[in-house]
Structures are given as structure tokens and as C-alpha cells.
TrEMBL record:
Single GO MF annotation: aspartate carbamoyltransferase activity
Pathway in which this enzyme or protein is active: Pyrimidine metabolism; UMP biosynthesis via de novo pathway; (S)-dihydroorotate from bicarbonate: step 2/3
Positions of L-aspartate binding: 82, 173, 229
Membrane among keywords: no
Name of the protein in its database record: Aspartate carbamoyltransferase
Catalytic reactions of this protein: carbamoyl phosphate + L-aspartate = N-carbamoyl-L-aspartate + phosphate + H(+)
Superkingdom per UniProt: Bacteria
EC number of this enzyme: 2.1.3.2
Domain Aspartate/ornithine carbamoyltransferase Asp/Orn-binding: 159-311
Chain's gene name: pyrB
Positions of carbamoyl phosphate binding: 54-55, 104, 134, 137, 273-274
Protein purpose: Catalyzes the condensation of carbamoyl phosphate and aspartate to form carbamoyl aspartate and inorganic phosphate, the committed step in the de novo pyrimidine nucleotide biosynthesis pathway.
Source organism per UniProt: Demequina zhanjiangensis
Length: 319
């Protein structure tokens, strides 16, 4: 594996290898000295064309804890904002000796173009491209589910689990990445969204679709409930074109204390962040003992350490 661009590219063995390696990385983060010498001498560039806090900081922390040199490149205020193309930016990074480029871009397919355009010799990790893919988010979600619901034995998938993903599926690269990865790992996926926020061609996705959260809670034995952020910035008219009002959306799709209480006792609540409290999730649900939202952020560092390690350490590192 040279690049990590999409969960669709991962076999079950690939995914489990990353999750198992992330478990080993997480164990090293409980030591007094958390830094490993594994990627000393390697250079990792964070290339972000879209704003991000969690993902960028998480990748930066992961690379630094593996002793890599990190260069943060923000498109705002850079040559990109002056009209430089993705190709020319990539050639600049290649000239700087980038061993890996972590890219987040507003255009779907940008990470693939960067990896296969012939401009870079290093590895490309997709940190989110448009509404297309966000593979490390799906991997950290699977890692979190495995820890809570399976017990994290090495080699384990998510067989037999039912995961409901609720909300703005149409604009969500997190939903697309998770549906593919969870299916690969053996879980059943239920998407919950208004018809206006369901992508065209959903019938080809390996999942069920229902149109209210109550229908999902009553019809399925849910093990993990993942609430998606309503992405108003990707909607025309601030979201009003996709549902009548925020109040109506919350009434049909919001997770509150009542719906939380109707979930199975062992079920966990997830959210990729940032949250719109009071819209897709109430403060009571977000802060409940069943919420693993803060833990997801911490697990992201271990998963991204694993991805960087497996891509850059090569055979020598694996041995």
C-alpha cells in the first residue's frame, strides 16, 4: 500500500492491519515518553485547502510522535490563493523532499489526482476531498467501535454489529467512507436521512436507508449511533433548500435524551465533529456517559500514526 485515498481501496486484511497497528500505537501513547523514532528523517507535509482543526492537528501530532519532520502548508495566504495550480504546488513539495503529503481539498478526487498525476514520489494520505472520502476518519470510527463493542482482539472485524449513520449523508465524505469500511469489516449499516439529503444511486450502496431516527431505533438493534454534522456551508440557502427548518430537522433526526434512552444499553454515541449542539445532537446526548465523541479525537492520533507508519516505514519498519 503506497497511498491511503479511499476506504474502497482497503481489503478486510488491510483495514484490520491498520486497526491492529493503531492499537499498538495507542499503547505507546500511555507511556511517559510517547515519542517513537520510527520516522526519523522523513518529512510529512500537511497540505490543507480547507479549514480543519481536529484533522490537521491530529495528523501533525501523529507525525511528530513518530519523529517525522512536519511542514504545515495552508492554502490561505499562500501561492495557491494567488492562483497556483495543484500540479505546481505538488512539484514544489516534491522539490522540498516530501515523503508523505496529507491533503485536504474542497474538490472530490483531488487526493487521487495528487497521488497519480506523476508529480510526487511520496505517499499521499487523503484527509478529506470534497464530499467524496475521508478514510482515516472512518478508520478511527471503526477503531473506536472495535474497542467498545468487540473488545479489540487483534484480527477482529466488526462482524454482527449494526451501525446507524444519521443526518446529512448527501454532503458527507464521512458517511461514504464509513459505509464502505464498515461493510468490509462485516457490520450492517443503516443510513438515516431525509430524502433530500440522500445521494443519487444510494440503492447501490451496501446499506439500508430509513427516513426518520425513530424508525431506525424501533426497527434495528443499534450498537453504534453516529450523528453527522449538518453541513450548512455546502448547502445553498444555508440549508433551507434541504429541509423546512432547523426545528423540523431536530424533531425528526436529532438525538435527544428520550431517543438516547430508547437505544440498547450497550449502544455508543459517535460524532465526527464539529458538533452543532441543539441541531443534530442535544447537549444531554453529547455529554452522556455513552458518548465516545471526545475519545474519537484521541483515537484519531493513534490511527493516523498507524497509517503513516505503514506507508512510510516500509518493509524495514514492518520487520
Amino acid at each position: 500500500m503506497r497511498h491511503l485515498l479511499s476506504t474502497q481501496d482497503l481489503s478486510r486484511d488491510d483495514a484490520i492491519l491498520i486497526l491492529d497497528t493503531a492499537g499498538q500505537m495507542a499503547a505507546t501513547q500511555e507511556r511517559e515518553v510517547r515519542k517513537l523514532p520510527t520516522l526519523r528523517g522523513k518529512t510529512v507535509v500537511n497540505l490543507f485547502f480547507e479549514d480543519s482543526t481536529r484533522t490537521r492537528i491530529s495528523f501533525e501530532a501523529a507525525a511528530k510522535r513518530l519523529s517525522a519532520d512536519v511542514i504545515n502548508f495552508s492554502a490561505k495566504g499562500s501561492s495557491v490563493s494567488k492562483g497556483e495550480s495543484l500540479k505546481d504546488t505538488a512539484l514544489t513539495l516534491q522539490a522540498m523532499g516530501a515523503d508523505a503529503v496529507v491533503v485536504r481539498h474542497w474538490a472530490s478526487g483531488a487526493a487521487y489526482q495528487l497521488a497519480h498525476g506523476g508529480w510526487l514520489h511520496g505517499s499521499v494520505l487523503n484527509a478529506g476531498d470534497g464530499t467524496h472520502q475521508h478514510p482515516t476518519q472512518a478508520l478511527l470510527d471503526a477503531f473506536t467501535m472495535r474497542r467498545h463493542l468487540v473488545g479489540s482482539p487483534e484480527g477482529a472485524g466488526l462482524d454482527g454489529l449494526t451501525v446507524a449513520i444519521v443526518g446529512d449523508v448527501l454532503h458527507s465524505r464521512v458517511a461514504r467512507s464509513n459505509v464502505q469500511l464498515l461493510h468490509t469489516l462485516g457490520a450492517k449499516v443503516v443510513l438515516v436521512a431525509p430524502p433530500t439529503l440522500v445521494p443519487v444511486g444510494i440503492a447501490r450502496w451496501p446499506c439500508d436507508v430509513v427516513h426518520t431516527l425513530d424508525e431506525a431505533i424501533e426497527g434495528y438493534d443499534i450498537d453504534a449511533l453516529m450523528m453527522l454534522r449538518v453541513q450548512r456551508e455546502r448547502m445553498t440557502g444555508g440549508g433551507s433548500a434541504f429541509f423546512p427548518s432547523p426545528e423540523e430537522y431536530t424533531r425528526l433526526f436529532g438525538l435527544d435524551g428520550d431517543r438516547l434512552g430508547r437505544l440498547p444499553e450497550h449502544a455508543i454515541v459517535m460524532h465526527p465533529g464539529p458538533m452543532n449542539r441543539g441541531l443534530e445532537i442535544s447537549a444531554e446526548a453529547a455529554d452522556s456517559p455513552r458518548s465516545v465523541i471526545v475519545e474519537q479525537v484521541g483515537n484519531g492520533v493513534a490511527v493516523r500514526m498507524a497509517a503513516l507508519y505503514l506507508l512510510l516505514a516500509g518493509e524495514e519498519g514492518a520487520q
